[in-house]
Each structure stands twice: as structure tokens, then as C-alpha cells.
Amino acid sequence: MSELLLTHEALAALVEELATAGRPAVAPAWAGDAGRAAGAAGAARETEYRAVTDAAELALGERLPRLSLKQFFLPATEVLFSWRRTASEVELVSAPTELPEQVVLGARPCDVAALPIVDAVMNWDYADELWNARRAATVVFSLACGVEDGSCFCDAVFLEPATPRGSDGRLTPVEGGYLVESFTDKGAAFLAAHRGSFAAPPADAGEALRGQAEAFRAAARERVAANLSLDHPRLRDWLDHHFDDPFWASLGPRCHGCGVCTSVCPTCHCFDIVDEPESVGRGVRRRNWDACQTCLFTLHASGHNPRQDQNARFRQRVEHKFLVYPAKFGDVLCTGCGRCSRACPTGQDLAEILAAIDERAADAATGDDRTPAKSSAQPDGEASP
Amino acid sequence: MSEPANATASQTHTAAASPGAGTIYQPDLVVVEAITDETPDTRTYRLRFKDPEKAASFSFRAGQFGEYSVFGAGESTFCIASPPTRTGYLECTVKAAGKVTGSLREVDVGDTLGFRGPYGNVFPVEEWEGRDLVFIAGGIGLAPVRCVIWNVLDLRDRYGDVTIVYGARSVADLVYKRELEEWAARDDVRLVTTVDPGGETSDWRGEVGYVTPVVERVAPSATNAVAVLCGPPIVVKLTLPVLAALGFADEAVYTTLENRMKCGVGKCGRCNIGSVYVCKDGPVFTAAQIKALPQEF
């Protein structure tokens, strides 16, 4: 399908049309109450993904939203079922798995690319009906990214700032609006259903607009490529053979274990399952986002904890993303959005850490490995039986 | 108080009677048929599915586990401690230690709990036919081993010699005491029980000492034998080299890893060790597999 033009005016009308139809688009928007009031864009600098009803709330192509798009597919908390008890009988009420349609407009490509990455986890052997229902009910248009800052590294994890991965379609900024492409039947159906908003570019301007879009994407690719590059097979091999490397002990001391890196991450999907009583004899079971960076995550009821310190927990985060997930699903559990680095209260920077590991991996590959592959000092805080 | 708006009759899912209702996280309802006190803090619960169809169709294999619900307290992971050779019910043996296990203490016969499962891989008991079997367990680690022991004893003529070494902190902490007596009385089972030094009573006639040195003393033959080892992580870590010294090949030694789990189905990201999800790739591992993993359990 050839590219269509979505002018700023048409976008505003589309946002209002969707809101009026009762399914307001989820889009980057100015954060906070100030951001909800039209015209406050200049004052409120933070952005967030939110269902928008007024085009003035939109913050397309502005700062990276604080949280990723993940919350619209794996909510921070959601009900799995509710239960009611009478005498010794218990009745369960299932959570609905037919969910209302969602439209996502102008999401960061790195956030959208995270969706098929998490799909793999949510569907090996057991299919997670709630995740899949939200995926099926959602059409996602990404917005080609101009690269946020030096913490971005999508290019180093098999992506690029305008990657089509996971998107049903893509917007690229051009003069007067956006050039729009669809990549899937779902995306094409959305464009067809809202054909009044999308017009073929004027015959005399089409070539120029396509040139602008391509130039925008190429410039972004070039900008992000300068941030980080990784040799993944070499990196994986190093991770696989350096579980006890002293390098890991340099990471824990500057980690508070707060888990903000996992909350802001578009690919972190770990969750807890807890019961929440609502009244006498009834309540709900929920799943809530959880974080491998907290001590409680792996704590056994006996008091034994397989991951005893923050070094081990940080190693887990890096290994899950760049060794464990790749071994299972043949990809990496990271889209290079850089949110973890920006959000960390102690300045822990994943791009820096990966660069440091890559350097060690390069040294190991050329035989200049100054650290032993296996340390004999495996700390074991267990008491005698 | 009014009911939630979505609690309509059409969505009501009672006793798993409507197939397809609910997500993979929604348990089947089970009723507590019997409760046995094992130790002052450990009980065995015998459970039966409320839905007769589910009860009839349910099957599992030795080594698998489930997620057990106490509605209002939450869900916990325990092995299925009864053998697959005995159908119509399943048992779990639980030590009161946390929120769910503590609330299980308040449960009575006739109460309704939840069960999801069976999950995980299995002990390859069919492959072991014709071989001698050595079972080693510490504390409540006898629960998963008990499942295999009865599986084997229910098909006794298919297996060679059966040796069981079981230890606990004290005489009071030994679980399945009636079954220990039963095994001790059989002439086709060699049972050695031990308690930690100081844990013996005046009439204790078993061994005194930690499980690992007792295994060393008992020195079961490794010839054509398979060893199954379950217990606290420290018992497993210390006993693996002893079995190796006795001549057991790493491929002939089986254990279970008991990592904390929530989902049981490879999603929640909690139980992995290296590239292994204990809930799906385990909980049963050979010593060879354990050695290839990062030592993070």
C-alpha cells in the first residue's frame, strides 16, 4: 500500500472522532493534570501514554513517555478472577478475556517492538489469554523516532529508530503532518475505516514528502548507531562462561534494588500473583508487576535465597535479557529504549554496562582474558543443615 | 455490599464445570478429604476435584507439581506427594512457613481449595525399570521422593533393590511416620532413618547424624543403580559429591530444584536458573544437568 498523508488537522479530527466513538486512542500525551488541559503543553514537559480525547493533549515526537506501552497489554495490576465463599463452598468468577478494541497512535517503535518479544514468553506451551486478548484487540501505529538521547541503543539490539517490528503501521513526520504506511491487514483495515483522515499526498508533493520521511529515518538511524554497538554471539558466550566473574560485584554496590528499571522497561514482564480480600468471604486474585531486583523476588519460605545479594540480582537482569531469553527464544529481551538508564536513581546505565561486557568479551575472544572463567569463590551463606 | 458488576451468571465458573472458562491462572476447585498431622508444623492434605469429570480425567506423573490456592491467602507451589499409581485424589505435604502455608493450618476437612497443574517435568521411572533404586531425602524433601517411592513399590516387581535413606532434624520432624514403619517392615525395602545430633529421643533406634555422612556410611552400590535425592539446598549440594564418590554417574542421580514460583507455566520469570525455567524444564534434574547450571539455587 502506498503512503498516505495524515495532516496535523486530520490527526486532531481523528483523535476526536475516536474519542467520540468511545475508543479514545492511546498516544503519547503531556503528563499530569496540567497536560490534560488543552494548551498546557509548554508547561508540562513530561509525557505519558494515555487515552486522549483532545488533540491538544498529544505529545507525538516529544520526550519519551515515562512508562512504556507495556501497561496497555500487561497492566501494572489486573484481576485474574474473583472468588466468593459461602460456608465451605467457593465460587470463582473468571476475568473477561473478550476485551474492548484499543487503538495506539504514535507509539515509539522500541515500545512496539517489545510486544512481539514478550509474545514469545506469553505463548510457549501455555498461552496467556489476557495478554493475547489485549494484543488481538489492539491496532498499533508507531511513530518513526528521532532518537531521544545518548541512552538510546535500539540499533545495538537488532532494531532501528523506525523499526516496523510489531507495528500494524507507521507514521513518519513530514512537513504539515505524517506520512502513514500500513504493514498488516489490521493496519490497512484501520486506514480504510478512517479513510477520511488519510489522503493520498498531492501529486506534486508526494516525492518530496517521501524524501523527507526517508531522510528523517536515515538521520535517526545514523544518530543512534553512534551510541552503542554489540557483538551478540561474543557477548552471549562471555555471559555463558562468566557467571562468577568479578565484574558482577562492581554492579551491586550501586544498585538500591528499587526495581524502577523493570517498571519502566517495555520488555520486563515478570509478575507476582496475590490474593486481595475485598470483604468477608470474597476477594480477587491479581497479578501485579514484579521486579527481579528486589530481595523478595526469589526468597524461599525457609529463608534460603538463591540470589543472596544485589550483584546476583543485577547479573540476573543482564543475563535474562541477553543470555536466557536469547537461548529460549532466539532474540534479546531489550529494545534499547534506554528508560532503565534514565530512570535509575543511582545512575546505573545499561548501555555502559553492555559496552563494558562487550569489551571484556572482545578481550576474552582474543585471548587477552584477565579474569578467570570460573571463580572458585562461590559465596554460600547457608548454615550447616 | 453489592456484588461486582461483572459477576453475572454467564461468567460464573463453578468447579471447572464449564470447560474453557477462565484463564490459565484460574485453578480448579478441590475439596479437602483428609488432613494428616506429620510433624508439629507439617500436615498432609488429601484433595479431590469437585468436578467429577475433572477428577476422572486428571492424571500426572511422578515429579510434577501444582499451584495450590487458599482463597484469600494466595497460591503456593508444592509437589504432588501422592503417587500417580493411586488415582482419585492427590496429596500435598506442607510445612507452615509463610502466608499460604500458614493459612492452610486453618483449613478443615470439607473445605474448598484451588489446584492448578500438573506442571513441570517428571522422574523417568519407566527408564529405571530393572535397576536398583536409592532414595535419599532430608526433612520435607521426602514429599517428592515419597511420590516416586510409592510409584515404584506399587509396581514392585519391575525394579531391583530399593534403599531409602531419610533424615530430619529431630524425631518429631520425620514426616510420613506410619509409612516409614510400613517401609521398615517390608523385606523388599531397605530403610535407614537418621536424625541430626541432638534430635534423637531416648527410644530412637535409627541413626544419629546428618544425611550426607549417613549416605556415606550406608554406601549404596552404584552398580546398575539410580539415585533420587531431595532435600534442603544444602543437603543436595553436599550429597551430590558423596554420590559421585560412591560411583554414581551424574546421569544416574536425580534431584528436584525447589525455586520460588508463582505462575508455574513459564511466564512470571521467577524460577529461572541460567537459561532454565525450573517450572517448565524442571523441577526434576539430573546431577549432570545441575552441574551445567550456574550454581544459583
In a nutshell, what does this entry contain?
Chain A has 385 residues and is an alpha+beta fold. Chain A has helices at 8-20, 32-36, 109-122, 129-136, 185-193, 206-225, 232-241, 260-264, 310-329, 339-343, 350-365, and strands spanning 4-7, 26-30, 47-51, 77-86, 89-94, 102-107, 138-143, 169-174, 177-182, 271-279, 282-289. Chain A is 32% helix and 18% strand.
Structure description:
The complex is a heterodimer of chains A (385) and B (297). Chain A has helices at 8-20, 32-36, 109-122, 129-136, 185-193, 206-225, 232-241, 260-264, 310-329, 339-343, 350-365, and strands at 4-7, 26-30, 47-51, 77-86, 89-94, 102-107, 138-143, 169-174, 177-182, 271-279, 282-289. Chain A is of the alpha+beta class. Chain A has 2 domains: 4-78 and 98-225, no CATH class; 232-365, no CATH class. In chain A, the strands form 3 sheets. A 5-stranded mixed beta sheet of chain A has the order 1-9-8-7-6. In chain A, strands 5-4-11-10 form a 4-stranded antiparallel beta sheet, with no helix packed on it. In chain A, strands 2-3 form a two-stranded antiparallel sheet. In chain A, helix 7 crosses helix 9 (310-329) and helix 7 (232-241) crosses helix 11 (350-365). Chain A is globular. Residues 371-385 of chain A have low confidence and may be disordered. Chain B has helices spanning 52-57, 99-104, 142-153, 177-185, 211-218, 233-245, 278-281, 287-292, and strands at 12-13, 28-39, 42-49, 65-70, 74-79, 90-95, 112-119, 132-138, 162-168, 190-195, 207-208, 225-230, 253-256, 272-273, 276-277, 284-286. The termini of chain B are far apart. In chain B, helix 5 (211-218) runs parallel beside helix 6. Among the domains of chain B are: 25-119, Translation factors (Elongation Factor Tu (Ef-tu), domain 3, Beta Barrel); 132-230 and 239-246, Rossmann fold. The longest helix of chain B has 13 residues, at 233-245. Chain B has a 7-stranded mixed beta sheet, sandwiched between helices. The interface between A and B is large, with 62 and 66 residues.
